[in-house]
Amino acid sequence: MSKEKAEGGVNSAQGSGGRILIILFFLSVLLLSITKIEDTDTWTHLSFGRWIWEHKAIPLVEPFIETGKPFSYNNWLFGFMFYAAYHFFGVYGVILLKAITISLAFFFLLGDALRPYRSTIVATLTMTGAVYLARYRFIERPDIFLMLFLAYSVFSLNAFLYDGKSYLYALPFVHMLWANSHTSLPLMVIPFLAFLLGGLLQIYLNKKGVPLQRPPTTSQLKIIFFIFIASLAASLVSPYFVGQYTQGAQVLSQSWWTTRIGELVRPEEWQVKRGIYLMTVAVLMGFLLNYRRLSLIEFFLVIPFLALSYSAIRFIFLGGIISGPIIARNMSAFIESKAWKGFFSRKLALTGVGFFIVLFIVLSMTKTIYYFHVEEIKAFGFGVNYYSIPEDALRFMDKYGISGKIFNAFAWGGYITWRDFPRRKAFVDGRGFQDSSLLNALDMAPASSVVMDELQKQHGFEAVLIAYPRKWSGVEGMLPDIDVAFPHPGWALVYWDDLSLLYLRRGGPYDSVIEKKQYKVIKPANDITAGRLINQAYREKLVQELLRNIEETQSSRAYIDLGYVYNESGRYSEAIAAGKKALQQQRVNEAEARKAIAYAQLRLGNTAEAIKDYKRVVSINDDPTSLYNLGLAYMEKNDKKKAVDYLEKALTLDNNLISAYPYLMRLYGELGMSDKLKAASQAYRSNMDLLQGEQHFQKGLKAYLEKDYRTALEEFQKSLSVYPGNPVVYSDIAYVYYDLDELDNSYDYQAKAIEIDPNYANAHYGLALVYKKRGDRRSARQHWEEYLRIAPTGYYARKANEEIQSLGNP
Predict the structure, then answer these.
(1) 591: Cβ–Cβ under 8 A, 6 or more apart, which residues?
(2) Coil, helix or strand at residue 426
(3) For position 131, what pLDDT does the model report?
(4) Nearby residues of 682 by Cβ (< 8 Å), 6 or more positions away
(5) 8 Å CB contact between 126 and 324
(6) Would you call 771 helix, strand, or coil by DSSP?
């Protein structure tokens, strides 16, 4: 393929201006790569690197945790190199090695984007977009080696085709390094196949007279083929031989990983999907604009990586780094083909792109813009960002001599190993090669005393260090004495902060610590219920424990809860002070802190301040209670129209917000809005009835959780009498009958729930259980498959998959 270099015009931004753009681009990559260590998996790799360094060997058996599977550490070269950087230069060495690796990857990517048109303006602009998409993976993990090796692979192959450069002869060595650094090795095959198959097809179509980009020569393709074979052979020079080609797929085939680990789920948030869509549109538009010079090589190269971007959040950056040079090349070719030399001021274009890159650096470093939410915690500089690791809890354990094996949150095991092994031993860490039954037990244990007791007996841990769970809607009000984070009565909470909760086993070696440090009243994972604060003794003990926690940890949660208690006690000035203290902490739920402040301001008559804080809350999330209070605040200001707007918005989000109706009806009457007044009055009466049904439902759920099945059935039936079309209640009644082993009744109620709502997933799961117990495996499979269609992620999705597998072939 001949070089198609264009001269002049905007496409040939050469000279000092072009060099300045390139310098600015690499400055952006370097600065955005120099961030404190925040990824929890980094510590696992450093731990293995240290082990390899100290033992001068690759471990053959698991040195740190009990995985339940044969051992392998397929990233050994990465771990070793990064630990070597740490050994000689400390944390500075680790972060600099990361920054150098990423900068080198983008050196090759920009070099590829400049080929063949040397369009510095288009290339730097496009690759800045790639940096934006990829920055969330600028972390101390093997992904950055993947970034480097993949970038070099494509760069060297294109350099060979366009310029006859011989960089590709280094590929077997590069791919040998890749094979010993990361399980993403199968991706190495894609560029080779794209160049070989795309090249052959271009040769064939060119002979048929189809207008495409000039094809490679047959001799070039032969050389690429032999390099491919040599790379495949070199990639087997690894302790794990062909295992590097299968390990990654084995992990991704486990439903636990693709539903439980955030980076492996499909992109769902619009902000994330928007980036993928824009990238896809830019790629396709580039091909369409250059359809007469279409490169099938580039088409076959980019499509697999775009598909990967849609499959999991973790892989979006791959689409970005592969798409960037292709978009740049297509846009440069299009501009060149139109001969738009006179339409652009070279100096103005250089200045504009330079300003854009500088602005991008500033906005990214100040977190004004970012692609993915994990970038919010990135902090420029050298050191460790403790935002996501339980350092303070471990210091508490140091202080009180708590050692041995720990039941820990999945993500924290690597840091515990790095920091404390062998004095402390993690139960699990963030690696993929662990038994799925062990991982499921890890999920279930905090909420299941039976599972936790089995694990404790088997593994002998005396401490539980976990993160906050997702909220159990309504449970705190029904069972206020139950700790939703860890309801086991045999364990005592002795430490908590904004990130972690530490429990010690009663009757174990740390009873003296429990006696001294146990929290007896506060349950940090629970919402505080206003009804309990009526009890003065309870309220005083709660305040004492919150103040103690603030003294020990400066927890924003403690400040927010304290503000709530003060608000319910009429101590509004103190509530404002507590909320403002919460806002000063690193880990803070800003919306909750501002709600506490705004509520107090409203009660003190500071309406303008209350409105300001409530508006900030609703800008963070659509909170119906805050919208309701905004309506009340505008009523205080006698701004009736705005009051109506906010009260209506609150009811749109939560039409069961009963207290909003009387105010809204009053405003409708005063504003002469008779039609709306009539509709609101009807909705109010209807919702009052539904509220009664909801109260019966909550009582039934409480009884069910307490295993008082007959009371549960009575309350659920009362709920149905108010709201006979609720599939949730029918399904819950069915589950009660299932637990009573009354399968016919269970079947009838689940079937009724599905009749009302064919897409009610829990009813399909319940029917599957009934069919399985009856021995109808085929029907059980059908309903579990239907459950997975409706609810493909989460714990019960994994259980449904396991149940289907246990049923065998249909």
Answers:
(1) 616, 617, 620, 621, 623, 626
(2) strand
(3) 95
(4) none
(5) yes
(6) helix
Q: Which of 160-169, 230-239, 337-346, 407-416 has the lowest mean pLDDT?
A: 337-346
Residue found under tokens 């979006």 = 316
DSSP-H helix ranges across 212-254: 218-235, 247-252
Tokens describing residue 344? 């652009």
Structural Rg of the chain based on CA atoms: 31
Q: Which helix (H) or strand (E) holds 395?
A: helix 391-399
Distances (CA, A) of 162 to 132, 188, 642, 719, 783: 28, 21, 64, 73, 56
Domain ranges within the chain, ordered by starting residue: 10-377, 404-517, 530-651+661-670, 725-807
* Strands of 518-675, DSSP E: none
* Pairing mode of beta strands 491-496, 424-426: unpaired
Instruction: Give residues with Cβ within 8 angstroms of 585, minimum separation 6.
Output: 498, 554, 555, 556, 559
- Ramachandran region, residue 209 (left: φ > 0; alpha: ψ -120 to 50; beta: rest): left
Give the residue-averaged pLDDT of 233-240. 92
Return d(Cα 173, Cα 13) in angstroms, integer. 35
Cα(630)–Cα(439) distance, rounded to whole angstroms? Answer: 45
Residues 235 and 179: their CA atoms lie apart, in Å, by 5
Q: Is 530-651+661-670's fold the same as 725-807's?
A: yes
The domain covering 725-807 belongs, at the CATH homologous superfamily level, to Tetratricopeptide repeat domain (1.25.40.10)
Q: Is residue 183 a contact partner of residue 242, using CB atoms and an 8 Å limit?
A: no
Burial of 256 (0-12, 13-18, 19+ CB in 10 A): buried
Tokens of 47: 């731990």
Instruction: Give the whole-angstrom CA distance, residue 491 versus residue 454.
Output: 14
Distance CA 126, CA 330 (A): 11
- Alpha-carbon torsion angle 51, 55, 57, 62, nearest 10: -50
Of 275-284, 688-697, 752-761, 784-793, the least confident: 688-697
Q: Which residue has the tokens 């009838």?
A: 748
Least confident piece of the model among 372-376, 495-499, 511-515, 603-607: 372-376
Architecture, CATH, for domain 530-651+661-670:
Alpha Horseshoe (1.25)
Three-state secondary-structure class, residue 37: strand
d(C-alpha 664, C-alpha 704), whole Å: 37
Nearest to 174 by CA among 94, 85, 111, 237: 237
Strands 500-505 and 491-496: antiparallel
- Name residues whose C-beta falls within 8 Å of residue 163's C-beta, 6 or more positions apart in sequence: 3, 115, 116
DSSP 2-36: ------SSGGG--HHHHHHHHHHHHHHHHHHH-B-
DSSP annotation of 622 reads -
3 state DSSP class of 380: strand
Exposed, middle or buried, 203 (CB in 10 Å: 0-12/13-18/19+)? middle
Which residues, listed in sequence order, are joined to residue 505 by a DSSP beta bridge? Answer: 491
Q: 104-124, pLDDT tens digit by residue?
A: 999 999 999 999 988 899 999
Distance CA 321, CA 306 (A): 10
Tell me how far apart the alpha carbons of residues 454 and 46 are, in angstroms, rounded to a whole number.
32
Q: Which two tokens stand for residue 585?
A: 């902490």
Please state the separation of Cα 591 from the chain's center in Å.
20
- Which residues, at least 6 apart from 596, have a Cβ–Cβ distance to it below 8 Å? 560, 563, 564, 567, 575, 576, 578, 579, 582
Residue keyed to tokens 């009934």? 770
Q: Which residues contact 17 (CB under 8 A, 6 or more apart)?
A: 120, 346, 347, 350
354 confidence band (pLDDT: 50, 70, 90): confident
